[in-house]
Amino acid sequence: MNRYLKAAATLLLAAGALQAQAADYPARAIEWVVPYPAGGGTDIVARTLAEKMTTSLGQPLVIANKPGAATAIGADYVARAQPDGYTMLSGDTATLAANPALYPQLSYNPATDLKSVGLMARFAMILVVNPSVPAKTLDELEAWIKSQSNGVDYATPGSGSPHHLATELFRLRTGLNLVHVPYRGAAPAVQDVIGGQVPMMFVDSATGQQYIASGRLRAIAVASAKRLDSMPDTPTLMELGLKDFEAYAWQGLLVPKGTSDAIVDRLNTALRGALDSAEVREKFKSMGLEAIPSTPQEMTAYAASEREKWGKVIRDSKITVN
Question: In sequence order, what are the residues at sequence separation of 6 or more whose Cβ sits closer than 8 angstroms to the Cβ of residue 166?
Fold first, then answer.
């Protein structure tokens, strides 16, 4: 009996320590891991939100860029960190949805090794062509692709990227003969579409809008639920008959599994406050970003649905990475 009482007392002490830890949280700087190089869209989103969240939390949020292995290096680092709320991760479509289907030996499990804090933002995907392509509508584009005996090339920032997955979903849904031309990053892919070396691609709104506005790329349709405020004359793919066709590059905030719910709730409150601020919304709008605040539970459900959706696309398209 004494053994059971001792065990119960130990559990109560541990619970009390966790409650005290959560009540004092945060007591020092928080490391925010961005699994991409500095200066990119994911990095800018994290730094923009970190500035606002620092004020709310009363402690600095320090960005640590840990790029590589399709975000797996940063994700693995956070998954193995102490679950004390002092290490966080910007996870995205690759981290949480595509990687499990692309990499059979993935070093982390997005469903069990990481805990959701909340969704942050998403970029809509836009189907664009070089202006020399004789098509201004989806019907005209499909007719032109069908007239090309060897199919049509499309550019992406790399295998397994949201841009690649969006185009493969488009190929599966339309039955068009499209040939993948992967690049190392969005910039060279977009430049080759602008230059006419490759005729088409799905580009994210943050990267593509400036080139669409200047006429260097022609937008055919957007892969969002509704038309973009910045491109009101460009229809959605769903309007044009592709039912339930949505494709985004999205991001959310995560912490290691085992982090207390109290700490997660504290971070979620700070995150949602930042996303609701006028300054952040204006900055996101200028980047073609949509703020998507959520609860931790909503983020977990969204990530699971995206993992199922894109996993099927990867399997059906037989996408592999080197």
Answer: 125, 202, 223, 247
